[in-house]
Design a protein that fits this description.
11 strands, seven-stranded mixed sheet, 120 residues, mainly beta, elongated
Length: 120
């Protein structure tokens, strides 16, 4: 099993910045794709950004140019640097990892989420 724990969420003013961190722990053989998703109240969960082991990234159009996803493979961590935050960024942010925990198959793993609130 792999556990993901997010940290770094909080309340910031519009235009401010936050840096989210996600630490993977447990029985980790390999972690492939990692990502950040977010879900606002009454909305569907949407992909914010993802990153593979080689550092290739994808971003939602709504955050492109403002957010940066990165990872540290040695530490089994993924980060999301969020700049120029807008009230529309307010959501619970979830860490995701596609990982192998010693079995033949790979599985999806999710963190419990961290609240990001951007005031106007």
């Amino acid at each position: 099993q792999v556990q993901l724990v997010e940290s770094g969420g909080g309340l910031v003013q519009g235009g401010g910045s936050l840096r989210l961190s996600c630490a993977a722990s447990g029985t980790i053989v390999s972690i492939g794709l990692m990502a950040w998703y977010r879900q606002a109240p009454g909305k569907q969960r949407d992909l914010v950004a993802n990153i593979n082991r080689g550092g290739n990234t994808n971003y939602a159009d709504s955050v492109k140019g403002r957010f940066t996803i990165s990872r540290d493979n040695d530490k089994n961590m993924v980060y999301l640097q969020m700049n120029s935050l807008k009230p529309e960024d307010t959501a619970v942010y979830y860490c995701y990892a596609y990982a192998n925990s010693g079995s033949v198959r790979w599985y999806d793993y999710w963190g419990q989420g961290t609240q990001v609130t951007v005031s106007s």
